[in-house]
Amino acid sequence: MSTTRTDSLVELAARKELPLHQFTDAATVEWIKANRPDLPPAWPPPLRPTTQTLVEQAAVPTRWLAEPQLADSIHGHRHGLRAAVLAALLADWYGLDESDTATAVIAAAVHDSQRQHDKDDQGHGNRAAIWLAANAELVWTHFRRTPSPSEVIRAATAVRLHELPYEAFTADDRADHARAEQICDLVKVADALDRFRLPKRIWWPNAEFVREPAFEQLLPLAYDLVVLSEEAFLTSASSVAAVRYAVAEKGLV
Length: 253
Known about the structure:
globular
């Protein structure tokens, strides 16, 4: 069956006809709103000032993307920035120091940067990890920081492992994870929490696939960030401005 420009992502997903490049639409956002889970009150408090500064820098340039067409797609700037915000919240929740917080936020911001498309692009985490290690000076400077070897290694490790289920880890993956466990787990959770944007409920956040006690507490905020930012984007805000609007509306900055 051919598709038309009026087909929503929800309709395409139901027919298993999602294209390589997927862009949100009004009908899909209305579907997300109509299927809001029974969630507790939103959490948490505002970000620490130093963490807010990191989040302000977390919108990555489009030129960093392997496929510029994905800048405004479901794996583009809005997803990357929301993931960075969620990683920042988790870092503050656990009281991570400035170095570890920056490492988590940077990894979350670039974790999907080397995707070729919006479907099951296997290996995109590894490609992004290689890109991050090769461009560490560029990336850390963007965040107004100087990279340390430890930060680069841990961020690249978290980026590489973010797409792999824990049960699929090889012996080498488990060894790498052990050396950067907290950063890896936070990035995995931040990525998973932002799945409310996807057009099938079975693809929405699922605690079975993460290792994070705060996961359930962050679900209502993650949901609200998706709805607020996707609606803002559809009313002509840029992807970055849309997420920044949502972050401000939730009182995080």
